[in-house]
Design a protein that fits this description.
2 domains; D-Maltodextrin-Binding Protein, domain 2
């Protein structure tokens, strides 16, 4: 699996020589909490505000739904100079030093008293499992591959990109745990932690203990990505990230983002 296929939410900052230097323009999904929304309530919105203030720039948004081809239609099309929420090392762009590291998690009802932190847990063979899938073709995510390696194929898929007529489509997998539709969700940590904290029934979020399954990574450093050749902007963003490290960590904690292992 290519890193560019991973489920990592994308918030795109637009800047560079084509625009006034005192404006930081951001492409963001208008309906994708906890990352971003049109009301600027997501943690990527908060980090964008923090960086723009630090750089003495005016922050502006261009709203763009996060769907397949998002990178191709934004930064690779020349519309964006900087993106947030991308796995470190993605080869299509230059990535900054990471600003957090997270993992996939198990989400269960607290009343179930399940203790899950590994795909080897024997209980998984008896539970109704929900997993995240990508797009209309239901492309597999890392947890699906890990379950399949163990012969666990009786699972329910929940699309990362869903019906935009409903708020925050990716949250459906967490709602399914809360309602009892499934027993456990295996989902990307930042989204899972946020919506589990908001659920009407108490849910527990248990990060995967392993950071990889064979050669398959399960935890990821998350960076900003800069268009190739725009190294000056990359350096300015890295400097702002360093200066605001504590404030960024506080934002992530407020949004219940599971963080593991520090930055590589």
């Amino acid at each position: 699996m290519r890193q560019s296929d991973l489920i990592v939410p994308l918030l795109v900052f637009i800047g560079g020589s084509a625009h006034a230097q005192d404006t930081l323009r951001v492409c963001a999904d208008p309906n994708n909490l906890p990352f971003s929304n049109r009301a600027e309530q997501g943690f990527e919105n908060k980090i964008a505000t923090l960086l723009a203030k630090d750089m003495n720039h005016t922050l502006e948004y261009v709203w763009h739904a996060q769907r397949r081809g998002y990178l191709r239609n934004t930064i690779l099309a020349g519309k964006c100079d900087l993106i947030a929420g991308i796995a470190t090392g993605v080869d299509m762009v230059e990535t900054t030093e990471p600003y957090y590291r997270s993992t996939y998690v198990f989400v269960t009802r607290y009343s179930s008293k399940l203790k899950l932190d590994s795909f080897n847990a024997p209980e998984l063979r008896k539970l109704r499992i929900g997993v995240q899938v990508i797009g209309d073709d239901y492309a597999n995510t890392p947890p699906v591959h890990a379950l399949a390696r163990r012969g666990i194929v009786s699972i329910q898929g929940y699309r990362v990109v869903g019906d935009y007529q409903t708020p925050n489509p990716p949250a459906s997998i967490i709602h399914a745990v809360s309602s009892g539709e499934i027993d456990v969700a295996i989902a990307w940590g930042p989204m899972a932690g946020y919506f589990a904290a908001l659920a009407p029934e108490e849910l527990q979020v248990q990060p995967l203990k392993a950071i990889e399954d064979g050669k398959l990574p399960l935890a990821y450093d998350i960076s900003f990505g800069v268009r190739r050749g725009n190294m000056a902007l990359k350096q300015r963003i890295e400097a702002a990230l360093k200066r605001n490290r504590r404030a960024i960590m506080a934002i992530l904690q407020d949004y219940h983002v599971p963080m593991v292992g520090g930055h590589r």
